[in-house]
Specification:
alpha+beta; 12 strands; 4-stranded mixed beta sheet; 10 helices; single chain; 19% strand; 318 residues
Length: 318
Amino acid sequence: MANISTNDAPAFAAWAILSNPNGMTEDEVKKALVSNGIEIKPPVAKGTSSTKRGALEIGEVVIVDGSKCVNPNNMALCKSLSFSPTNPLYLVVKDVVRPVDINSKCSVVLSPLTSEGRPTRKTFIFEADYPARISVISKKIQKAQKNGDSATEQTLKEELREKSLTPHSGLGVYRTGFSSLGSLQKYISDYDSSTKFVVVYERDTTTQVPKMRSDFLRDYSARSVQQSTNFGEFDDQIEDLKEYASRFYEAPIRFGALSSKGNSLYFGMDTRRSRGANSIMSPTKGKVYYISPVHSLPNSSVWKSDLRERLEDMAQDN
């Protein structure tokens, strides 16, 4: 067994892409899933999604996404509480405040959770600003006001207020799929016993192979191999090596399935602990460069040696 460390992940992804630049075929992906015990489910009809929608509710487990927060009154909180692989922070909705005054903005009160899914005593208040796309409702409110239709105006403003409490950039808070603390705690307890997979995947099918650094091309033959962290070994040889970390996934694969028409394979990785949400992948929508259970990964000395040889071959070709 050869676990991939955080520092190794970008270079491993670069190695996988160089080793298999065309990606795996759908049949190869299906074989890799089935041979490792992943069931391929039949097509699911459209419109059968169980994703929860509407205003956030007390007891839901959420995350904060600082990259998707445009409310200036929430930006400082969004930055400090934002979910990331190095800070996989979940929070629970402690309260949803709807002021009596229909024209006043609502707010959502969140409490951070421990790594075991237990609530802490701290609370943070997020202002629920209105979503960007409310022009239709706004025009209807203006029309009701013009006509003196106070009942319709009240109903529309209540609808608008509920929209402000849904996950969106004016709030900066998003659902995780955990409807309660109990469901998160069970998930955490079950996660460690699940088989983990490493997948190298790119959603953009125009991905280029790793580009060599010009200085490495000039003097690669005289360069000594540094036996330190992975960035020390390869960051000075491959441009933007750290960007390849986004192509590296390590998590359980929960299912494989066919599209609603039955003509496209996809599979789901449980990346909620590392990325805040599940990751759905498909060899027809992107490129799957590598799939393997963690326990079947090649030894680090093997793939690193192969990567060095490939880089030297590329340098000779240039």
